[in-house]
């Protein structure tokens, strides 16, 4: 009986059909969110490398070390995924075929940046972190050129 009532309501008051060019047609895109997430990856990578391993016989210090290390790793991986998601949204939703004419290496730039996000998740590498920041800086430059705007690159750290 309840399902019949719902079906009747749906038939009498159908939802309108909507269309959008992307997931959320807000038109608001900005590579800064990828930069911020990547900076967190850099920070956590440095913290992981700087964390001092305690003596094996100090159980309390070892527990604190493992807790801190696991938190740093979790944050690093989470932020690397966020950076990757933000890069992929720009690549798949903002950039159009017309941009490829001016930037023929656009796909390669984004593909390599996404791969660097994955590398930063899997490894603890300051080199890959630096390469990721360079890739995002390149994306930043290309993005703002397509909007004919001169937006300075900066980092929070």
Automatic annotation (TrEMBL):
InterPro entries (UniProt xref): NiSOD_sf, Superoxide_dismutase_Ni-type
Coiled coil regions in record: none
A Pfam short name: Sod_Ni
GO molecular function annotations of the record: nickel cation binding; superoxide dismutase activity
Lineage: superkingdom: Bacteria
Classification via SUPFAM superfamilies: Nickel-containing superoxide dismutase, NiSOD
NCBIfam families: sodN
Protein name: Nickel-dependent superoxide dismutase SodN
